[in-house]
Amino acid sequence: MSTVAAVTGVVLSSLLTLGVGVFGLRLSRTTSDFYVASRAVGPGLNASAVSGEYLSAASFLGVAGLVLSRGVDMLWYPVGWTAGYLLLLVFVAAPLRRSRAYTLPDFTELRVESRRARNVASALVVVIAVLYLVPQFQGAGLTVGALTGAPSWLGGVLVAVVVLVIVVSGGMRSITLVQAVQYWLKLTALLVPLAIVLVHTHGGADATTARLHDQAWRVPLQRPHGLYLTYSLIVATFLGTMGLPHVVVRFYTNPDGRAARRTTVRVLVLLGLFYLLPTAYGVLGRVYVPGLAGTPGADAVVLRLPAQVLGGGTADVVTAVLGAGAFAAFLTTSSGLVVSIAGVVGQDVLGRWLPPVAAFRMAGAAGALVTLGITALSSGLAVAQAVELAFAVAASTFCPLLLLGIWWRGLTAAGAVAGLLTGGLLSASAVVATMLGAAPGGWLGAVVAQPAMCTVPVAFATMTVVSLLTQAGLPAHLESTMVRLHAPEAIDLDRGGFVPVAERAG
Amino acid sequence: MTATPTGPRARVRVTGPRTGRRRPTTVAAEIDARTELGAVYMRSLVRSQLRLAVGVVLVLAATLGAVPLAFTLAPSLGHVELLGVPVAWLVLGVLAYPFLVGLAIAYVRRAERNEAAFRDLLDAREPR
Question: What is the spatial distance between Cα A98 and Cα A92, in angstroms, rounded to a whole number?
Fold first, then answer.
């Protein structure tokens, strides 16, 4: 009977997503609409959309699971995922919007004026998006399994199908509306059940048990290599956010650089509000469902907690609400990631043979299906950890590219390519080893499990040194590009003739 | 828009607004012409914004970024409690978020001030 309520929640969430998505279809007509909603989105709506897109399975389910199992050190995940937006704000938000590039490959081409660098950036966008998508599909499987006992592949397939329908029919504009609505849906879906649980347990006052006083859980940095792992996690999350393709594409929907900054501040508020909740679930889970701690089922603690605390019909309804929220999380992040894959692959690969809208649809479909296949092969890493690995790759590749490209005139195409390849290969091989469960033990194991602390400086150094050795190859329109990136739009200046691929004739 | 190099003497002959564009102010014309003077103005803007961004990062590193180090150097901090809640949980679970928002608001205010100063510079009639 609990299954009926849960299935209703999941179905309603999917239908709402589809409904808003298809409603948006009428609004998206031209190619430009498909890619970035014609840049007509205000900061309030845009901030909800950015947050809605960003809060994935890792935030909705994964953080609580990690806090339940491993305690205080895991709070760095949500803190880092929020602080990443502060660094994005101060270094990237306004210049990136002013660049008028649609995607990270567009930005790469604008700044270093090289087709080869653009191609490397495109390949990395696909790698990061797929690494990020796999845990979403995995989380969907886990949720469907926990709620109904159905086989776990079903959840992944369900998410893939809904995302495909949205991406293929509506493009970016519909996604903007979907994402904005879904932030509030996710927040409510965690907040209301938490309030009910807290009222039922009288604020958790009678819940001070020995489990909360376990030193290894309660006190920071008790694990081996704890300090390295924590700082490496900080580096990956603080610096990785700016290099996530589905986040970055959102910034192009701001009307100008000023609005991009204001959007980012609102995003920080919305994320801060949201991330208070998973911590509470993790702590309450420690008290009421301690059996999940340290097991692969820990990721389901958010879904299991109400049934443990409440009884009967209330538990069913509350679990259904949480299931709906979790599905909202998989759907929004997945559609954002599939849109970014579709944008890049559609423009750079299929765009040579197909008209833009058809290329976008084909690329989106291919991206979702390929990821579904990879999900079947991956090992059961905790969802939040798997997502954080995608951040490590982003921090080791696009972070140096953006920071050096925007703030240092010396970056050359050769430097960019060398840095992207070095950072990308090092971080991605560590990530793949961790995902397959092939990481060694000891210090090397810590480095492989959390590579950012090593790979980010290497990527920065490579990009800088190779650029310094190839200063003869500075891009021809460097001055125009710097004016374009930094001068406020209100000033009438010559910003060079760069046109993003999606706006070029055809 | 091909920017034909325009020396300072050329601008005396501009009598009417150019079609479709606002009439360029003097410093803007310097920047458009990619002169040494224009580059100096652009660099000053970029440098002021970069200095501000690095300042925010230093504040972040010295506060939130120093938290793991603090717990390593003074392990007893891990057992300190405030209102029955361990400080580490309070800082990372709650206080970090309003702190990040505060830093962001302070940054935006200053970044917009830098840009306003740059615009004032460009609006000035005679820069030299």
Answer: 10
